Amino acid sequence: MFKILNYCFFDLIRGRWIFIYFSFYLLLGFGILFLNNDISNAVITLMNIIIFIAPLIASLFGVTYYYASKEFTELLLAQPVKRKSIVLGQYLGVSISLSLCLILGLGIPFIIYGAIKSPDIWDFSLLLIIGCFLTLIFTSISFNFAIVNDNKLKGFGYTVLIWLFLAVIYDGVLLILLIILKEYPLDKLSLFGIMLNPIDLSRTLMILKLDISALLGYTGAVFKMFFGTFLGIISSSLILIIWTILPIFSMIYKINKKDF
Amino acid sequence: MIQIKGLYKKFNKKIVLNGIDLNIPQGSLFGILGPNGSGKTTLLKTILGMVIPNQGKISILGSNILKSSSYRNNISYLPQAANFPPNLRVNELFSLISDIRGNLINYSRLIEKFKLSPFLNEKTNTLSGGTKQKINIALAFMFNSPLIILDEPTSGLDPISLIQLKKLIQTEKDKGKTILITSHIMSFIEEVSNEIIFLLEGKIYLQGKINEIKLKAKSSKKGIDSYLTDFEYAIASKLKDKNV
Questions:
Q1: Global pTM?
Q2: Do A71 and B82 touch (CB under 8 A)?
Q3: Cβ–Cβ < 8 Å for B29, B3
Q4: Interface contact flag, A79 B97, Cβ < 8 Å
Q5: Does B83 touch chain A (CB under 8 A)?
Q6: pLDDT below 50 — which residues of chain B?
Q7: Predicted confidence (pLDDT) per residue in A95-122, tens digit
């Protein structure tokens, strides 16, 4: 697996798209930090962007990479390596290089700005961790769709739909549900709803960490009570980890059943 | 060397392999022929474990291959289409595969034979289709494996490389290796192999030595016998019988 991870990583970081993605974060980091002149504001702005962009790019990149390397994967399959090692190597190659773009692309401007010594460094670190989680999650989701669909258009379509659903539609559905059920106590439901969606969960974690949960009103207070506790932190991290691991397992299951 | 029993494979509703029984002894060279979609590549891919059969058993060198990956140490494979990671250099590609497999034997000889040394430091996305195919061939013959599987090895090759390929196949055959080749080009198969398997609609329609098949075709009393002097016509006559 590590040999394949290694080649995949080096193949990718020499590619144009990874460089463009890295430059995007670099420019974004510099732009927002130096225009905002306030680190915690910058973190909020960055969060709003990362929460959409990281999953989208991970999805698109994952699908593209899988399809583009399909013929080489077939060559690898004829070698004495397990299917699991090939797909995991490629998956980790893609997600690690994308995560590195995020970490370095935003990290460099922060270091140059001198944010290391500021108290906001923890907020910033959480932002990067969340970005990496989202990258891991959405890369594996996209691999799942690409493995199942030999038709590239379908693979792309489903992946983008899932992103659209989790990033945009889900919130709307949740909101409508909350309005319909407004007669009932809804704290638990909304808490549950948010925890099921990795993008919502990341956003909520970030907002709570930034201490701007007052913006969320009463619900914010409920969330703070929950997420602020030991149980809240543990359960939300656990859910993010489950979101990361489950698609990986399903990916391995699917690759073992696939005909090439 | 390879024993296949009752191999059956269906893609969606299409039956691609329909009960294949095959026994390939060590040291033999089989050409696998058949019209498009007859199941040639699928047969090779099931042997390689890339396609999982619905029914049937395949054993290579006495051990069942299902759910195993280490048996592929004994197989060299040349796939139909060659496409490599675009940003890797050619020598990195070679070292990746040899990292996975070890026991590299013919590296420098093959590089020289196919005149690949000027390309070793180039990225694979700058190479032409023919050069990629040469690299593919080099990758397949680099290892000392007792079974060699070549899927359409002639595609995109220039005449000189084609001669080199034929020589390579001959040398490996002389070493007592088992070789399976699919090709659309009958004259190529006729030249390099002495036995053929003819697949039709997922079944082995015909199997045997080329000379014997030619003789049989000659003696048959069908309308076009006078033309059946050559192998292609022999196969064509078989197809005609079947009304394909």
A1: 0.87
A2: yes
A3: no
A4: yes
A5: yes
A6: 223-229, 244
A7: 999 999 999 999 999 888 877 777 788 8
- Other CB atoms within 10 A of residue A81 CB: 19
Domain that holds residue B105: 2-241
Establish if B132 touches chain A: CB-CB under 8 angstroms.
no
Question: And the tokens for A243?
Answer: 């979101």
Minimum CA–CA partner of B65 in chain A: A80
Note the pLDDT tens digit of each residue in B160-207.
888 888 888 888 888 888 999 988 777 888 888 878 888 888 888 878
Cβ distance B87 to A72 less than 8 Å, yes or no, reads no
Counting one residue from A and one from B, how many pairs have CB atoms under 8 Å apart? 77
Three-state DSSP state, B109: helix
- B59 — phi, psi (to 5°)? -125, 140
ipTM of the modeled complex: 0.82
Give the DSSP H or E segment for B4: strand B2-11
Q: How far apart are CA B194 and CA B209, in angstroms?
A: 6
Query: Is A148's Cβ below 8 Å from some Cβ in B?
Result: no
- Phi first, then psi: what are they for A172, rounded to 5°? -60, -45
Separation between Cα atoms, residue A21 and residue A23, nearest integer Å? 5
- What residues have CB less than 8 Å from B64, skipping those under 6 apart? B57, B58
Nearest residue on chain A to B11, judged by CA atoms?
A259
**Amino acid in position B190:** E
- State the CB neighbour count (10 A cutoff) for residue A237: 14
CATH of the domain at B108: 3.40.50.300
In Å, how far is B226's CA from the nearest CA of chain A?
A: 43
A192 at interface of B, judged by CB pairs closer than 8 A:
no
- The whole-number pLDDT of residue B226 equals 41
**Structure-block tokens of residue A59:** 């999805």
pLDDT given at position A252: 95
Count of domains in chain B?
1
- From chain B residues 30-59, the ones with a CB under 8 A of any chain A CB are 45, 48-52
